Amino acid sequence: MNRAPVIDSYEPDRYWNVNESQDGSVLFTVSASDQDDDTLSYTWYVNSQYVSGTGDSYLLEFDFTSAGYHDITVNVNDGEETVTHSWYLQIINVNRPPVLLSHEPEQELTVNETSYGRLYLSVNVYDPDGDYLNYQWTQNEEIQYGYRSSTFTFSYNHESAGEYVIRASVSDSEHTVGFAWLIEVLDVNVPPTISSANPYRNLYYNEQENGSIEMSVSAYDPEGDELTYKWYVDDLEMPGANETQFTFRFGFDSAGTHYVNVSASDGQDEATYTWTIYIYDINRPPYVRGANPVEDFTVDDTSKKWLTVDIRDLDGDDLVYYWYMNETQIEDANTSSYQLITQRNMTGNFTYMVLVSDGRGGYAQYYWNVTVVKTVEDTFELPTWALVLIIVAIVVGIFGALVVVMYSRERQRYRGRGV
């Protein structure tokens, strides 16, 4: 009678804990014997999945993605009977701190005072565990609540002279990494200011022919420096525009949003003012420049005639043509020309119309009132000489018939006399 194998000892303990680590491992071994001296075979499983062990041992490898509970089981078989041993392994999650990969710009910075100065700071932080990262920015130890991402904008102006420590702190649930910049803002020239501007900052106009807007500013320099002016339209400097007044001109091709900028400079710094001008598109409908034929006309019922219009659209819109006969649209007639083909015996008065649309609600149209009349059939007329011959032939025929009649009567009369 076969006796089952016996597990004499095992390593490690049945319940075992380890911390996550990179390239971590745990060696599981079992010592078994068989009273019948049968050859023993070993089968290993991790979380019920077969794994390839080395006889009576199995090396479990893990890393920082292996946290959790794991069942390790070995089956020892002597060919007939099987005994089993299981371990319960907990791999404890180990939080890895975030890693600062890079930062922009350099750590110590020196800038001059200026109007609307900006420095853009950023950190590139990676969390090995993929944890959510929380960003906190401080400026001279004061939390900047408006910044919760990897970037920060340091703003400064002509009243910002001094030193600033900007610190980025990035943390997961346990650890924090950070970086700090030292920024020195140097005291420089006090810039001019624009005290007033006319008209109001945001302007609304419809497109129009030869439209214009008069603009002006009043600027002041605290140090009494002479000011020079420059005007810009949509970031393009306007040549010759160097006074406190400027005329913005627009037309029917000006639809959209435009920005007019003026700068007042004391030679070192400048003050600026910006108008936003909204020019609304006004659709100009297409119009008829010419037509052929120009007026109403009459044709017979076997004629063909081209109807053509010359349409212009000042906005350059794509035009679509629709042709109608007596208010019924003509299929496949979609160009500036249409060939009118009459049909025999279809006479009467017809109205042909072309309607041209610019696709934006504008249209032009042109009408022709067409009268279709019946074709006069051509009559056959014989020439005079043929008529004369016919008359002569008729006369000769009649005369010949009379001669025959008279001859017949004379013969009958002679017969009656017995001659």
Structure description:
The chain is mainly β. It has 4 domains: 6-92, Immunoglobulins (Immunoglobulin-like); 99-186, Sandwich (Immunoglobulin-like), CATH 2.60.40.10; 193-280, Sandwich (Immunoglobulin-like), CATH 2.60.40.10; 287-373, Immunoglobulins (Immunoglobulin-like, Sandwich), CATH 2.60.40.10. The protein has 1 helix and 32 strands. The strands form 8 sheets. A 5-stranded mixed β-sheet has the order 2-8-7-4-5, with no helix packed on it. The chain has a 5-stranded mixed β-sheet with strand order 10-16-15-12-13, with no helix packed on it. A hairpin with a 4-residue loop joins strand 15 and strand 16. It is flat, with a radius of gyration of 54 Å.
**SS-derived structural category:** mainly beta
What is the annotated CATH architecture of the largest domain?
Sandwich
Q: The CATH topology of the largest domain, please?
A: Immunoglobulin-like
CATH level-4 homologous superfamily of the largest domain: Immunoglobulins
Measured distance between first and last alpha carbons: 173 Å
Instruction: Quickly count the domains.
Output: 4
Radius of gyration: 54 Å
Number of helices: 1
Strand residue percentage: over 45%
Biggest β-sheet: strands ordered side by side in the sheet: 2-8-7-4-5
- Give the overall average pLDDT: 90
Biggest sheet overview: 5 strands, mixed
The quaternary structure here is: single chain
User: Helical proportion?
Assistant: under 10%
* CATH class assignment of the largest domain: Mainly Beta
